[in-house]
Design brief:
2 domains; alpha/beta; disordered N terminus; 15 strands; Dna Ligase, domain 1
Length: about 325
């Protein structure tokens, strides 16, 4: 993440040389596998193109719901990537299911006081202490009349962050920044300048994520241990997740003062057309499958050397590398 007065690094623990912030390697550790994407900057800085995209199955049980159970085995997976592609610095994902996300309004404060103002409200919004947490925030909007600022805050337990830092370092890799999967995916698949409420559904192999993005910022996120990606379209998971989708939409529409206008599907299950059509059947909200290459090139005609279906499983890894729109 690039740090500005309004956006503070989620992992603000070590100073990072400016040139390392240009890293074009993203790594996503899932319960089932570890995914790796390396982008290549085009000549004269006109976007990116894909250099490498690959995945390695994780040893069974080494990661469960984002918790690292066997760091030695996972470190071997990371070393395989590192040695094969010569990677030393990466941007990486932290587990969404271990994070807390909330929005809040804070009074008018100068830019240099934003971090302290957000820190002051952490303990009243999440069940962990400030001392035991690592947080990041994004400004959603500012009221020009009152000076009130709306922020979206992401919080993780410090021990979770430390475990991931230690894992990468034990594999000889330096993590230069971390982000959440919801925010990385949103960066990849939401059009620049699109400020309408959009629901992203991330259909992963062992979980499903629902993320609501408005004004370019993720303002709602939940990850459920149910999946359609490896299941049968007629299974109970489909009905459960469809009901959860309805709940998310109803909650947002009732409480946010705006209505979700579009649904974008991604993840490994997003390429299964029959499954997606049955899952989304009867939806009154227009839906589409994500274009993870949306922001890769200014010409908007970039075609990578992997299939469209494969690309959907790399949305978060790609989003880690892309610059922020805001």
């Amino acid at each position: 993440m690039v740090v500005s007065e309004k956006q503070k690094a989620l992992l603000d623990l070590f100073p990072v040389p400016e040139f390392l912030l240009l890293s074009t390697t993203g790594v996503v550790i899932k319960d089932t596998d570890t995914r790796f994407v390396q982008l290549r900057r085009k000549i004269f800085g006109r976007g990116f193109e894909l250099a490498h995209a690959s995945k390695i199955d994780n040893p069974k049980g080494s990661v469960e719901s984002g918790l690292i159970n066997n760091p030695d085995e996972l470190a071997n997976v990371l070393r395989e990537f590192s040695s094969h592609y010569g990677v030393s610095y990466v941007k990486a994902i932290l587990p969404e299911e271990r994070a807390y996300l909330f929005t809040a309004n804070i009074g008018q404060v100068p830019p240099e006081g934003m971090k302290d103002a957000v820190a002051f409200i952490i303990e009243e919004n999440v069940p962990i202490s400030l001392a035991e947490s690592v947080f990041d925030f994004e400004v959603v909007s500012e009221d020009g009349d009152t000076g009130e600022i709306k922020v979206a805050v992401s919080v993780l337990p410090k021990n979770i962050v430390s475990a991931y830092v230690t894992l990468f370092e034990s594999a000889g890799i330096t993590p230069i920044s971390f982000d959440l999967e919801s925010r990385a995916i949103a960066r990849a698949v939401i059009h620049k300048g699109n400020r309408q409420p959009t629901l992203i559904i991330n259909l992963s192999t062992k979980k499903t994520g629902f993320y609501v993005v408005e004004k370019g910022v993720v303002q709602f996120s939940t990850a459920l241990a149910y999946s359609l990606a490896a299941g049968d379209p007629g299974s109970g998971s489909k009905e459960f997740l469809r009901e959860e989708m309805r709940k998310v939409i109803a909650f947002w529409n009732a409480h946010a003062g705006s209505k979700i206008e579009k649904i974008i599907l991604c993840g490994s299950g997003g390429s299964k057309t029959a499954l997606v059509d049955k899952f989304m059947g009867g939806s009154e909200i227009p839906y589409t499958t994500a274009d993870v290459w949306l922001k890769m090139s200014r010409s908007n005609n970039y075609v990578p050397e992997i299939t469209f279906g494969e690309s959907l499983g790399y949305a978060s890894a790609i989003g880690l590398i892309l610059p922020r729109d805001r």
